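Per-record layout

source: Platysteira castanea
name: DEDD protein
length: 166
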Amino acid sequence: LCCPPGPPLGPKRPGRARSLLGTQRKRRKSATPDPKEKQTCDIRLRVRAEYCQHDSALHGNVFSNKQDPLERQFERFNQANTILKSRDLGSIICDIKFSELTYLDAFWRDYINGSLLEALKGVFITDSLKQAVGHEAIKLLVNVDEEDYELGRQKLLRNLMLHTAP
């Protein structure tokens, strides 16, 4: 296994998902919360397994006999794209609901210091996945948007203030 050092960074959320999440946030903000009801926040956790190296799969498997340089380049690109897509190990998106600020902060701390990544390796890097990839090294990418955390923290902090005020 190979994993990046420091805080794990994964691919950004696709534009469509971001716009949908933005719409959901706008809807949540427009509804006036009942001050007696305990508020929660949702944090999106993205976990993705990837091969560390693709060179061995591409080397010797991408070629073209086309005479025209542009056609040759296009054909090689399409072959490489097909090979890389076939090596996609997939990803999992988890929406985690927090109702306590201390739990949210602990989750964020674990994400930043890398202990969340280490814990998730045991869950996602299974024996069946190891068997499927054979001798190739894989890495796990874990991503949580800081904006999600900050917005959730503000919401839970307001919630805490409402419930502790005399």
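summary: The mean pLDDT is 79. Residues 41-164 form one domain.
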